[in-house]
């Protein structure tokens, strides 16, 4: 059982002046230690929602509660934001005239000198910033600035960390390394994390819960397993990887490229296919087939499936 703060959105809405609502009626509760991902098409208000949750934008309806207390917006307090909530986005909020190490250390005044030095070194190592630790932050690359922003946010030891597309400049190695670190840290610190991402694989790997946001509201909430294997529509399912659609006796069946059989099985239906091409993809080969209605499906296998004329789903 987690203890600590809770972040709760109660029927909130937001709109810019003289414009229609970006979103309305949004309900959400994030528990300490939970990693919650928000996915959906561009322009649905995901980034705006995070800014509202951070207290940086004034909501137009509803309320946001943190530990049962109302989160005030910028129209209600002198300095926007909340000390227990950190937001990391593409703005790279850091002091350009301090070094990388100094930017991190400036967030750690709540620690004694030895603990501060130790934590700075831990973050420099995790985010692979040791080589630029003594450079002014204005002199480092965009990718390094993004990593520094995340390191500074974690240095504050917030109860809630809000991440807006935080890994877009990361290579595969850093992506996996820092994602794993965040997941472990969230559990150890009981830190709630809300991640906005267009990367479905990212959401599946790191989340306890995934929210689908479109048409100005959160339409679905599900576990990663449900998001991947039990999508309600082709639109939703394709956020998390390849998804096939076939019609058998006028009924639509959705299945992932690994959810098929090459031999008859109980309760599985036959689908006629025509091989089109294959493509190597590291651990598996993508085999593309055409259906009778000219639509295309893809099947994953360890080999090329040139001779296959029928599959079972």
Automatic annotation (TrEMBL):
<dbReference type="InterPro" id="IPR003439">
    <property type="entry name" value="ABC_transporter-like_ATP-bd"/>
</dbReference>
<dbReference type="Pfam" id="PF00005">
    <property type="entry name" value="ABC_tran"/>
</dbReference>
<dbReference type="GO" id="GO:0016887">
    <property type="term" value="F:ATP hydrolysis activity"/>
</dbReference>
<dbReference type="InterPro" id="IPR017871">
    <property type="entry name" value="ABC_transporter-like_CS"/>
</dbReference>
<keyword id="KW-0067">ATP-binding</keyword>
<protein>
    <recommendedName>
        <fullName>ABC transporter domain-containing protein</fullName>
    </recommendedName>
</protein>
<dbReference type="GO" id="GO:0005524">
    <property type="term" value="F:ATP binding"/>
</dbReference>
<dbReference type="InterPro" id="IPR050093">
    <property type="entry name" value="ABC_SmlMolc_Importer"/>
</dbReference>
<keyword id="KW-0813">Transport</keyword>
<keyword id="KW-0547">Nucleotide-binding</keyword>
<dbReference type="InterPro" id="IPR003593">
    <property type="entry name" value="AAA+_ATPase"/>
</dbReference>
<feature type="domain" description="ABC transporter">
    <location>
        <begin position="7"/>
        <end position="240"/>
    </location>
</feature>
<dbReference type="InterPro" id="IPR027417">
    <property type="entry name" value="P-loop_NTPase"/>
</dbReference>
């Amino acid at each position: 059982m987690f203890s600590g703060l809770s972040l709760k959105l109660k029927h909130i809405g937001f709109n810019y002046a003289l414009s229609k609502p970006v979103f309305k009626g949004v309900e959400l509760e994030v528990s300490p230690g939970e990693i919650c991902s928000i996915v959906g098409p561009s322009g649905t208000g995901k980034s705006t929602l995070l800014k509202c949750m951070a207290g940086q934008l004034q909501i137009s309806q509803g309320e946001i509660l943190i530990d049962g207390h109302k989160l005030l917006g910028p129209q209600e307090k002198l300095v926007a934001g909340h000390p227990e909530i950190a937001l990391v986005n593409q703005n790279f909020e850091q002091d350009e005239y301090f070094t990388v190490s100094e930017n991190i250390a400036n967030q750690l005044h709540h620690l004694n000198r030895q603990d501060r030095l130790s934590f700075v070194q831990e973050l420099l190592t995790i985010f692979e910033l040791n080589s630029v630790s003594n450079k002014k932050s204005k002199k480092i690359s965009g990718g390094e600035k993004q990593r520094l922003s995340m390191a500074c946010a974690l240095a504050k030891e917030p109860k809630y960390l809000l991440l807006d597309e935080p890994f877009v400049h990361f290579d595969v190695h850093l992506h996996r390394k820092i994602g794993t670190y965040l997941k472990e840290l969230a559990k150890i610190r009981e830190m709630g994390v809300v991640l906005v991402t267009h990367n479905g694989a990212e959401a599946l790997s790191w989340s306890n819960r995934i929210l689908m946001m479109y048409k100005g509201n959160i339409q679905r909430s599900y576990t990663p397993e449900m998001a991947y294997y039990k999508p309600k529509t082709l639109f939703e399912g394709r956020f998390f990887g390849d998804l096939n659609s076939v019609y058998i006796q006028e009924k639509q069946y959705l299945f992932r490229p690994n959810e098929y059989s090459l031999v008859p099985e109980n309760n599985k239906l036959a689908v006629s296919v025509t091989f089109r091409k294959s493509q190597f993809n590291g651990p598996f080969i993508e085999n593309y087939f055409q259906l009778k209605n000219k639509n295309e499906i893809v099947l994953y296998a360890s080999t090329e499936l040139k001779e296959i004329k029928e599959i079972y789903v």
